[in-house]
Amino acid sequence: MSDTSLLQRSVLTLLRWLETFRYIKFGIVGASGTVVNLVVLHLGHEYLFTAIEPSDSKPYASLALAITVATLNNFTWNRLWTWSDRVKAEARVLHTDPDHPGAGQLGREFGKYAAASGFGSALQYGLTLLLSGSMDYRLANVIAIVIASVSNFLANDKWTFKRR
Hints:
mainly alpha
């Protein structure tokens, strides 16, 4: 057996073990959402909304768009991966297909997710604007995301994707 295949098997074993921890999954999804958020925030503030928010002003519209797009990203991946076991259990109770939910069911789930994440989103928005007065708006946004992530996890774990 080569060192490479042993390393690959070890890494896969570690990843499977880490996957059992929901908060780690949530963190990985959150990291992808942070990238989405920062890309949309930067593109919005530097290019899309330059007429209404010059680069030396606070990123009001860009930040709202970035949070919205990142929330859609995070809902999708959290539904498909972080809480997939609970989504499947709920589908069994409702006698629906978890892989092909109806528009109404998906809309209700997203509505609960957005409501549960609302406090975190408001906290992120406010903190980013507050901190961007004394540092780069992108760094301020990352700090705000980290702080808001705890409330987002707890709200979605206990309400949106609650254990049945």
